[in-house]
Design brief:
The protein is an alpha/beta fold. It folds into two domains: about 5-250, Amidase signature (AS) domain (Amidase signature (AS) enzymes), CATH 3.90.1300; about 260-305 and about 370-475, Amidase signature (AS) enzymes (Alpha-Beta Complex). The chain has 15 helices and eleven strands. The chain has helices at about 10-15, 20-40, 50-65, 105-115, 155-165, 180-185, 220-230, 275-290, 305-320, 340-350, 350-365, 370-390, 415-420, 430-435, 460-475, and strands at about 45, 75-80, 115-120, 170-175, 190, 210-215, 260-265, 290-295, 395-400, 435-445, 450-455. Helix 4 links the parallel strand 2 and strand 3 (about 115-120). Helix 9 (about 305-320) crosses helix 11. The radius of gyration is 21 Å and the shape is globular.
C-alpha cells in the first residue's frame, strides 16, 4: 500500500477488498510516519498503543459485518492543542511538556467513534500563537514541499503531515488563519467552519471568541467527510450551535453555474504578483464553469489586523493566566515565595511570542485603556461582520487570497513581529466575523511553492462553500 497517496475513499476500498486490515494499515502508517518525521518535525509524539487498539476495534466491527464508521481505519493526526486522554498534550510549550489529559476533546471522541485512527499529535506554535510554526518549544516544523520554508502557523504540523502523506487527514485549530494559511503554504485543503459548528470542548483556549477546530485533507471530499464527523451540538460547549449538520459531500458535484461570486477589492491590495496571478486564474476557472464574478468592497478590512491583535491578545492574557505552576504545569524550583514561583514558572515556561501577547493583552485590558483599545476593537469587529453581511446580500460567496505571499523561508520574519502578523491580513476577518472559510490549492509559483484560494461564505453555509471548492477542484484535477 502507498501510504503517502491514501485518501479516505482509498482506505475504504482497500478494507472492503481485504487488501489490508485496519491494523496492518495502522502499523504501516506508523512506521512510515516515524521514518519521515525527522525531515519535517511535524509530529511531536506518536501513540502506537492507542492507534493499534482502535484499529483492532475497527477490524472487529468489519469482521462482524457492522458499520465501522465513515473514517474506518483512516490514519489521522491531531494538533497538540486538542486534548487526548492518556496521550501527552503539550500545546508546543515547555509549561505542558509532561501534561497527560484525563479526558478526550469532543472532536477527538467523535473522530474515533467514526473509526478514525489517531497516529499522534501534530506540532504547532506554542499555545497556537504564531503564523509560521517556528514558535514551538520543541523546534520548528519544516514545509514538506520545500524544507527550507515554513509550513505556516499555527497548525503547521497538521498541514505538514497531510502534505507529507504521513496522515490521510488531520485536525487543526484556527484563531486568525491558523488552518487556512498552513493549508495554502503546504498545498492541501483546510477548512475553518462557522464559529460554533464544531465543539471547542477539549481545545486549549487561546482566544475563546475566535477559536475554531477544523479539518485538513488532501482533497475537498476528505475535508468534507472529516468536518461532518466532528461537527454538531455538544452539551459540554455552551457556544456550540444547535444547527443541523448536513452531508457536505452531497454538495461537491453540484457545480457553480448560477452562483454569484464576489472578489473583495481590499484583499487584492499588496498581493504578490505571482500569487495574485494564480488567484485570478482560479477565478477565471469558476467563471468558465458558469459563476458570475463581481467586485465587492469590505471597507473595514484595513483595521482588521489591529482589531484582531487587540482582541486575541486580551483573551489570551486571561486564558493563559491559569498556567502558573500550581496545578498541572511544569513548576520552577527557583522560587522562595508564591509570587516568585509564579514569576519564575511563567518566565521560564512561556516562549517569547506568548510573553509578547500576554503583555499586549494585559495592557489593553488595564485600567484607563480598556475603552480606548478593547472596547474600540469590539466595535470594529462589529463593522467587519457587517461588511460581510452586506456583501452576502448580493453575492453567494467570496473568493480571495489566503496570504499576501507563498511560504517564506525559515527565520525570515522571526525578528520582525509586525511583518509576521501581516501574514494574517486576509484570514483574520473570517474569524472575527465567525463565518466559514477555507483554502483550496490553486497552483504553484515558479519556485514550486503552493498557493491557496480562499472561499468565504455566510454563517452555517458550509454546503455552499464546499460546492464552490468541489467545482473548482474537479475542474483543475
Amino acid at each position: 500500500m502507498e501510504i503517502a497517496n491514501l485518501t479516505i475513499e482509498k482506505v475504504r476500498q482497500g478494507l472492503a477488498a481485504r487488501e489490508f486490515s485496519a491494523l496492518e494499515l495502522t502499523q504501516e502508517a506508523l512506521r512510515y510516519a516515524q521514518a519521515e518525521n525527522p525531515a519535517t518535525n511535524a509530529y511531536l509524539h506518536f501513540c502506537p498503543e492507542r492507534a493499534e487498539a482502535r484499529a483492532r476495534a475497527v477490524d472487529g466491527k468489519l469482521a462482524r459485518g457492522e458499520d465501522a464508521g465513515p473514517l474506518a481505519g483512516v490514519p489521522v493526526a491531531v494538533k497538540d492543542v486538542i486534548v487526548t486522554k492518556g496521550v501527552r498534550t503539550t500545546c508546543g510549550s515547555r509549561l505542558l511538556e509532561h501534561y497527560v489529559p484525563p479526558y478526550d476533546a469532543t472532536a477527538v471522541q467523535r473522530l474515533e467513534d467514526a473509526g478514525g485512527i489517531i497516529l499522534g499529535k501534530a506540532n504547532c506554535d506554542e499555545f497556537a500563537m504564531g503564523s509560521s510554526n517556528e514558535n514551538s518549544a520543541f523546534g520548528p516544523v519544516r514545509n514538506p514541499v520545500a524544507l527550507d520554508r515554513v509550513p505556516g502557523g499555527s497548525s503547521g504540523g497538521s498541514a505538514a503531515v497531510v502534505a507529507q502523506g504521513t496522515a490521510v487527514v488531520s485536525l487543526g485549530s484556527d484563531t486568525g488563519g491558523s488552518i487556512r494559511q498552513p493549508a495554502s503554504f503546504c498545498g492541501v485543503v483546510g477548512v475553518t467552519p462557522t464559529y460554533g459548528r464544531v465543539s471547542r470542548y477539549g481545545l486549549t483556549a487561546f482566544a475563546s471568541s475566535l477559536d475554531h477546530i477544523g479539518p485538513f485533507g488532501r482533497n475537498v471530499h476528505d475535508a468534507a467527510v472529516l468536518l461532518k464527523t466532528v461537527a454538531g451540538r455538544d452539551d459540554y460547549d455552551a457556544t456550540s450551535a444547535f444547527a443541523p449538520v448536513p452531508d457536505y459531500t452531497a454538495e461537491l458535484d453540484r457545480g457553480v453555474a448560477g452562483m454569484t461570486i464576489g472578489l473583495p477589492k481590499e484583499y487584492f491590495a499588496g498581493l504578490a504578483n505571482e500569487s495574485g496571478d494564480l488567484i485570478h486564474q482560479a477565478v477565471k476557472v469558476l467563471e468558465s464553469l458558469g459563476a458570475r464574478i463581481v467586485e465587492v468592497s469590505l471597507p473595514a478590512t484595513e483595521w482588521a489586523i489591529s482589531c484582531y491583535y487587540i482582541i486575541c491578545t486580551a483573551e489570551a492574557s486571561s486564558n493563559l493566566a491559569r498556567y502558573d505552576g500550581v496545578r498541572y504545569t511544569t513548576r520552577s524550583d527557583e522560587a522562595s515565595s508564591l509570587v516568585g514561583m509564579y514569576r519564575s514558572t511563567r518566565g521560564e515556561g512561556f516562549g517569547a511570542e506568548c510573553k509578547r501577547r500576554i503583555m499586549l493583552g494585559t495592557y489593553v485590558l488595564s485600567h484607563g485603556y480598556y475603552d480606548a483599545y478593547y472596547l474600540k476593537a469590539q466595535k470594529v469587529r462589529a463593522l467587519i461582520a457587517r461588511d460581510f453581511e452586506n456583501a452576502f446580500q448580493t453575492v453567494d460567496a467570496l473568493v480571495a487570497p489566503v496570504s499576501p505571499f507563498p511560504a517564506f523561508k525559515l527565520g525570515e520574519k522571526m525578528a520582525d513581529p509586525m511583518a509576521m502578523y501581516l501574514a494574517d491580513i486576509y484570514t483574520v476577518t473570517g474569524d472575527l466575523a465567525g463565518i466559514p472559510c477555507m483554502s483550496v490549492p490553486c497552483g504553484k509559483t515558479a519556485e514550486g511553492l503552493p498557493v491557496g484560494m480562499q472561499i468565504l461564505i455566510r454563517h452555517f453555509d458550509e454546503p455552499g462553500m464546499f460546492r464552490v471548492a468541489g467545482a473548482y477542484e474537479r475542474a483543475v484535477r
